[in-house]
Amino acid sequence: MSSLSYFTPAREEELLWSGNAGAATGPQPSTLGGEEARRFYQSLIEEGDGKERRGMEQRGRENRRGRRASRQQANTTSTTTELEGLRLLRCAQEGDLSGVRGLLSRGVDVNFQDSWWWTGVMCAAAAGQRGVVRLLLQQGAAWVGVVDTQGRDARELARMAGHSGVLEELDHYGSPLGTRDGTVTRLD
């Protein structure tokens, strides 16, 4: 454990903290008055021809525009990715095979997870959409060990909803319940 340090007040006035530091080191050069300082800075400004400054200002504006545009593009891309992923989950839940195929062909992640960690397989399994479950599994969707925020996987969701056909489909593409190792995976 560290020991406490105590503040010890000074007994004598120090020149550095009292504002009299200049008195001990000798005479200080005179300071510029307000008018002299203004003339000095104006002369610096007038020395340059102004073109450099305008060029720098222009480049600065262009750089800011470029950064702003790339930020907006990145935000748009992530928003688009999120919206497309959510569309995949909705199509999976509704049993829209052509919608799921279209989204996957456009590059939507087959293992997209929403903020509750639900995947397309989970949505389709909970809704009893056996054809969509089969399609997603054929496209490489993971489901063994992939759970939502409450620890439920696609098999558990299908079992709770009473969808035996979906359970058969999941057993065909994954390891049977008795041989699963019980590990949990979160897809990122």
TrEMBL record:
Bias (Low complexity) ranges: 71-81
Listed InterPro entries: Ankyrin_rpt (IPR002110), Ankyrin_rpt-contain_sf (IPR036770), GPANK1 (IPR039146)
Region annotated Disordered, chain positions: 16-35, 43-81
Top-rank lineage group of the source organism: Eukaryota
Bias (Basic and acidic residues): 48-63
PANTHER family (alphabetical): BAT4 PROTEIN-RELATED, G PATCH DOMAIN AND ANKYRIN REPEAT-CONTAINING PROTEIN 1
Protein name: G patch domain and ankyrin repeat-containing protein 1
Protein's organism: Oncorhynchus kisutch
